[in-house]
Amino acid sequence: MESLHYLLMKSHGMFSHKILLEASKIGLTPGQPKVLDFLLKYQEADQKTIAAYCEIEPATVGSILLRMEQAGLVVRRQKEGNRRSLYVSLTDKGMEAANKLTDIFQEIEGMATSRLSADEVENLKEILCKICDTIQSEPQNKRTNR
């Protein structure tokens, strides 16, 4: 059997490829599906919060948001009392795209897990959460000094 890191990278790459292919059919570019999914779940956030949640550099999120704003998917506005941060939320067009994207996610997840039982899917999600939590909780300097 292949190593864990190889299997994680391969499955992620294959899964991402399928999602980006389907997302492109509804006019989305790479990076936009993560942001739409986040905003569908949390409704509104500043650029820094979106970047952290989506594991994307803030500058990269800025360019993604600019394209999304130009496409009419999101709107950015200042909140009263906070002139330094712009808050991002979905437009009606963005909400429609996010709902289509949810269908895409469900379809691809269903295909990818079609050979697994419901218990195996839940176990897989629990294991992946543990892996993410473990990596995230390890101090940054410990990870980069190896």
Describe this structure in words.
- It is globular, with a radius of gyration of 17 Å.
- The mean pLDDT is 92.
- Helix content is 68%, strand content 12%.
- The relative contact order is 0.11.
- It has a three-stranded antiparallel β-sheet with strand order 1-3-2.
- The chain has seven helices and three strands.
- With 146 residues, it is α+β, with helices and mostly antiparallel strands.
Provide the descriptors you would attach to this structure in a database record.
single chain, 146 residues, 3-stranded antiparallel sheet, 7 helices, 68% helix
**Alpha-beta classification:** alpha+beta
Q: Which runs of at least 5 residues are low in confidence (pLDDT < 50)?
A: none
Q: What's the helix-strand series?
A: HHEHHEEHHH
Q: Radius of gyration from the CA trace?
A: 17 Å
Short description:
This protein has 146 residues and is α+β, with helices and mostly antiparallel strands.
Lay out the secondary structure.
Layout: H1 4-25, H2 32-42, E1 44-46, H3 47-54, H4 58-70, E2 74-79, E3 82-90, H5 92-112, H6 118-137, H7 140-144
Antiparallel strand pairs: 1-3, 2-3
Helix pairs in contact: 1-5, 2-5, 3-4
